[in-house]
Amino acid sequence: MAEPDATTRKPRRPGIAPGARHRARTALRRLTGHPRAAALIRRLAPRSVRTRTTLAACASVAVVLLATSAVVLLQLRGNLERTVETGGRAQARDVARLAAAGRLPRPVTLGPGTDFIQVVDADGKVVAQSQNLTGRPALTPTGTRNGHRTYNLDALGEEHHQRVTTVTTTSPSGPVTIHVGASLRTADAAEDVTTAALAALSALLISTVGVLTWRTTGRALRPVEAIRAEVAAIGDRDLDRRVPAPRSDDEIGRLADTMNAMLERLEAAGTRQRRFIADASHELRSPLAVLRTQLEVALTHPDPEVRDTLVAGALQDTERLQALSADLLLLARLDATGQSRPTEPVDLVELARGTVAVRSTDSHPVTLHAADDITVHGNALWIGRLLTNLLDNAQRHARHSVTVRLSTAPETGDAVLDVTNDGPPIAPADQEKIFERFARLDDARSRDDGGTGLGLPIALDIAALHGGTITVLDTPDGTTFRTRLPAGRPSPSPSASDTH
Q1: In b/e form, how buried is each residue of 28-48, taking b as 16+ CB within 10 angstroms?
Q2: How many angstroms separate the first and last alpha carbons of the chain?
Q3: Is 341-485 assigned to CATH 3.20.20.70?
Q4: Taking the C-alpha atoms of 302, 307, 308 and 313 in order, what is their torsion angle to the nearest 10 degrees?
Q5: What distance in Å separates the CA atoms of residue 133 and residue 109, rounded to the nearest whole number?
Q6: CA separation (Å) from 155 to 135, 141, 149, 399?
Q7: Closest Cα partner for 86 from 191, 182, 8?
Q8: How many CB atoms lie within 10 A of CB 481?
Q9: Core vs surface per residue 428-448: b (16+ CB within 10 A) or e
């Protein structure tokens, strides 16, 4: 028994010549490679996230629907063709049994779903056939398609697909071949209806997905547009404004919180910068005015002794201006360094001994108590400047002595540097104020005893740059400035530049 042969009556579509396809691809490449065409494509390409998201969603759904529809149509077509083939095979076997028994009717009766039946002998002569093929010659193959033989069925006078099943058997007069043609008209109709239904359903689904994606994306991006508009409207003098924060705890909400936190930092930085500029202008204006007055008086005063006194005072004010300029430059460098922590190993005990040793002429003696070995990672010059500023502050406020203690925190292993003076305690309300730039307490305002107001802020910035802290403590020995520096090696970062 041979396999069934598929025969079609639908006209064949004209093919595309390989040369024409190559010329079309070449023309397309030339068109897209042209500068004007490329510019046009860039202009036509969607720029908004909303449009791109909608197109991507529609394209994704279209691909899924196309693949699903193709699978559904293939399965439907296969099931229908197998049903038709089963019916045709059963009809062919029935005719084969009649032929083998010598009881083959003339004409052969058609069964349900069967278009024609033809029985031919070994010489190709028609032995029997259905009534609609009366007087027609034997069917002969005209070629093959997709591995199946094809037949010319013009005798039927109908334009539709058919499945031809061929069965061979032996009759009393010799071997015969039975051709049974089963109609695929129902399968074609079902396929067309299903294709139309899937196309309509796919168009509806793609349209629905496009509309929902467009509206959902627009609603989701509306807070982003509000944030963008608010940020665009904020100027350098409007840093107190904040972007609207949505109530949802999602990426957009976190973006708004981050933007507001950044604006708060910018506002605080701007406030500190303006205050710093105002304080620096005030601190520079006073000694400059005094210096000019002294020089003018010294220039016109006839008494040489008075003139020498005025020049000495002018030199003192010049030294104060020089110290203030150096402190301002150091603060600027510390601010520019940011979060870049130096990583050089520093022997804190040796550094403290060297710093205390060169201060033997201080008004109050400095006593050092240090452990054997304490090493931190940082910049030796800056840590030395931190200790120097703390000692200068202690010397200005001490009554009799200053004590420096170096130890290691037992719980964390951090280095602890205590600078204690036996002077008057600092009020709790002033313990944070003294670390503000140009902030000096009332008893340190004189030109002889008061500093520039930048020593403690510089020390605090240096400690923060090294990952440490400075706190003020009231101890039995007096007022203690405690500096804690981490003992662990920080993550690699560019080393801080020299401060001089």
Answers
A1: eeeeeeeeeeeeeeeeeeeee
A2: 103
A3: no
A4: 170
A5: 12
A6: 10, 14, 18, 129
A7: 182
A8: 23
A9: eeeeeebbbbbebeeeeeeee
Write out the chain's pLDDT in tens, 500 residues: 444 454 444 444 444 455 656 666 666 565 555 566 555 556 666 668 888 889 999 999 999 999 999 999 999 988 988 888 888 888 889 888 888 888 888 888 888 878 888 888 888 888 888 888 787 788 777 777 666 667 766 655 555 677 888 888 888 888 988 888 888 888 888 889 999 999 999 999 999 999 999 999 888 888 888 888 888 888 777 778 888 888 777 888 888 888 888 888 888 878 877 777 776 776 677 678 878 888 888 888 778 888 788 888 888 778 778 877 777 777 777 766 655 677 789 999 999 999 998 888 888 999 999 877 889 998 888 899 899 999 999 998 899 999 999 999 888 889 999 999 998 888 888 888 888 877 766 544 444 455 667 889 889 988 988 889 999 998 888 999 999 998 765 544 443 334 33
What is the three-state SS of 167-199?
Answer: EEEEECCEEEEEEEEEECHHHHHHHHHHHHHHH
Furthest CA-CA distance within the chain: 159
Residues 183 and 162: beta-carbon distance below 8 Å: yes
Write the single-letter amino acid at 221.
L
Topology of domain 235-337 in CATH is Helix Hairpins (1.10.287)
Q: Enter the tokens of residue 95.
A: 């005719």
Q: How many CA atoms lie within 13 A of 95 on its CB side?
A: 33
**Residue ranges of domains in the chain:** 1-9+38-233, 235-337, 341-485
Torsion of CA 259, 265, 266, 271, to 10 degrees: 150
